[in-house]
Input
Amino acid sequence: MTTAAQETQVTELLRSRGVRPTRQRVELLAALAEEPNDVTAQSLWRRLREERGSSVGLATVYRTLSLLREQEVVDALTHHGDEVCYRLCSESHHHHLVCRRCHRVVELDGCDLDAWVADAAAVHGFTATAHHLEVEGECARCAAS
Amino acid sequence: MTTAAQETQVTELLRSRGVRPTRQRVELLAALAEEPNDVTAQSLWRRLREERGSSVGLATVYRTLSLLREQEVVDALTHHGDEVCYRLCSESHHHHLVCRRCHRVVELDGCDLDAWVADAAAVHGFTATAHHLEVEGECARCAAS
DNA sequence: CTTCCTGCAAAGCATTTGCATCCAT
DNA sequence: ATGGATGCAAATGCTTTGCAGGAAG
Output
């Protein structure tokens, strides 16, 4: 459930990014904060309507997620190949570790690949500006079963 | 242009993966081999029809690319976010360096991140089975202009 | 021959957009 | 008040699928 405290926090987050905190945006972000894994726009929309009694429209979910991605409030992942998934992530540079069985996502903080990446890019005359790493594996729980 | 030698080479590649070398598949793979960068199914289809006089259907392009991806003959990339791009790549493990201005793609061979990745995964109880790194940057040509 | 492949057109689906209405400031 | 945001439905565009005819072994 969404508590008043959570709503306030989410509202502040939106304000701090210059995004007007409308009811729908606050609802969406609060719901996203409670998702343990990444979700598609469609699944988040269904959850909002069916489990949270929101009357938000699908188009608004898309518009809001797109806006939040631009403001770097959420990360957009594409590891399932066909559809885009969203996730509320830490603000610092990090990578994702995804379980290939249960799709659980864990954040890998403390990336120290910058030097390696810069070197590899320089070999080809490139100046590296960003990098994205995704690690696929099996989590302990799935490996045990 | 596609030479007879190229066609033979492409045909052998298909045979070696147990894929029946039909005319369309050979045409497609020969065309892909000449693409310097990654292409979408749509753009490859247009090029086949308009610049190579092929009468291949769009559905066949999708079907063939999908088949070749399963056989690991081509790599599927999603760096533009919305559409899937394909590319004929080296067979060994490698990563991609993409110019954010001109979208040129260079392969980064000799990845020695396995140890780093395995360690990072182990911290979270995961067993790493694969990893994908994409480096975004600016190529020398674009940086100069 | 027989099986798999292809082209075409139609269908499917995620995402975007137009527009009248509504809400936050 | 008033400009931006929303909901709905229609449109868009990539990708897949059904099916009759065609090619490969």
Q: What stands out?
A: Chain B has two domains: 4-87, 94-140. The domain at 94-140 of chain B is CATH 3.30.1490.190 (Dna Ligase; domain 1).
